[in-house]
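Milestone M4 deliverable, item 7.
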Amino acid sequence: MATLVWFRQDLRIADNPALAAALERGKPVIPVFIWAPDEEGEWPPGSASEWWLHQSLAALSADLRSLGSRLVIRSGSTREALRKLIKETGAKAVLWNRRYEPGITKRDKALKAELRDSGIEAESFNAALLHEPWTIQNKSGNPFQVFTPFWKHCLTLPDPPEPINPPKKIPSPTDWPTSLDLAELELEPKIKWAEGMRAAWKPGAAGSKEQLQRFIASAFQNYSSDRNRPDVLGTSRLSPHLHFGEISPRQIWHALRKAAPSPAWRNSQFLAEVGWREFAHHLLYHFPHTPTEPLRAEFKNFPWRDNNEWLKAWQRGRTGVPLVDAGMRELWTTGWMHNRIRMVVASFLVKNLLIPWQEGARWFWDTLVDADLAQNTLGWQWTAGCGADAAPYFRIFNPISQGEKFDPNGDYVRKWVPELARLPAQWIHNPWEAPPEILAKAGVKLDETYPQPIVSLGISREVALEAYARMRGK
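Output delivered:
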């Protein structure tokens, strides 16, 4: 009479509603993970996500063993894997926490119905969001499409319940079903690409707890001013932990409440960033076509360019624009990029180069450890101006002024573009404008040690504005 707990993007013991419900049944609990990338449609996990998943599953497995349990790993068809486990274990219930991607919700709904029809209890729970997408509506009963009213509405709702404490022990079956070894999933990259990610991150619930504690103790108070500075550690760096469910938004909500009990924390900029994550899932659920198609139909006729040479230069951090190149190299090395820089590099791709936002979304999907379909879609459509609550079409980030404002000493560029490290701050964001003697002193030879910009920022801005005006019929 065992209960199967099917883990997905909820790789934690604490505040895990499906696990808690299984324990309440008083029967042996069998934790299960099923590797089924073919069921993710167009968006199976990218290479960086696979690396993180391997580490996170290892951490979860260790946590389960410390509670007298273990993680059973299977691969292939989810339906067939669960059927086999039910037959092997005599399980009478399968419990899991919900995901919200369009293809996954459709699969899970069918799976739940099939299990119930065969006499198996099947239940799902909310472990990933403060408010599930179908529970939030505007006054007209429709989905929100602008963030500010969406989040204002959310803040009027009752606080989320306190997080569920982790169990002290998990009852085990007499006989355990067989399991694949984690290494058999072959999630680790076969090249040395992961070395930088290994140095930058500690995947798993323990790592997420450390990041949250570090953030609250040292960065939360100055978050509003420091969050835009890529040269300082001013953000939470919780995004990959949230995506893989190593920490829940409820845990973050209540940790902030306890650390900063005044009402001001509810209106904090950081909590609003948690709200943006909620908004992204709200949009993806209600507009399931948006990962590949613009929400605003007029953008289907936008005159995008097909320039593979420019796209590769952007991907490799060789555009000749220092702030853009720094961001793309940080991404390649660590699997992450500061959010301010994400906006800058995205704007450069879709507006200065006029390369389709879908190309950028797919590159981010493969290289980000926090690649999340809802947030990736929202971010790229926002930058391109074709989504809900989009940036105005005329907003084109200038990498020079952005660098001067948010990386004023050039420390971020120096770290990731070391060939420019000896340039004075005055010229590090626009080396092509530096006097020859300054370049010579810094050991910079444009088009030799560092490329010239692949496009003129000024001219490409005007070309983009003309393209947007034509699309809008002006």
